[in-house]
Specification:
The protein is an alpha+beta fold. Helices cover 17% and strands 47% of the residues. The chain has a four-stranded antiparallel β-sheet, with helices on one face. It is globular.
């Protein structure tokens, strides 16, 4: 989760797409060059250890003027954790 947040901060589309599950990955991203991320707070993590094949992370990512609160689902694909999808909260 932290590496994907950092990729959003740097607008690293290639990394974000590489770490997105193939079944839900978009063809491309349109990242807003005006977006200024200001912080990430991990609120909860369920499963997701070396012994799990899936897990969830609940986080709040702050940006200038607001915040994104999401519960994200991740799965292992070929040994690597990838983002599947998420539900916006609040």
């Amino acid at each position: 989760m932290r590496s994907r947040y950092a990729a959003f901060v740097r607008r690293d589309e290639a990394y974000l797409l590489r770490t997105w599950h193939p079944r839900t990955r978009p063809a491309r991203l349109e990242l807003d060059p005006g977006m200024r991320w200001t912080g990430l707070e991990i609120l909860d993590a369920v499963d997701g250890s070396a012994f799990h094949g899936s897990g969830t992370v609940t986080f709040r990512a702050s940006f200038r003027g607001g915040a994104l609160h999401e519960r994200s689902r991740f799965e292992r694909v070929d040994g690597a954790w990838v983002y599947v999808d998420g539900d916006f909260l609040e």
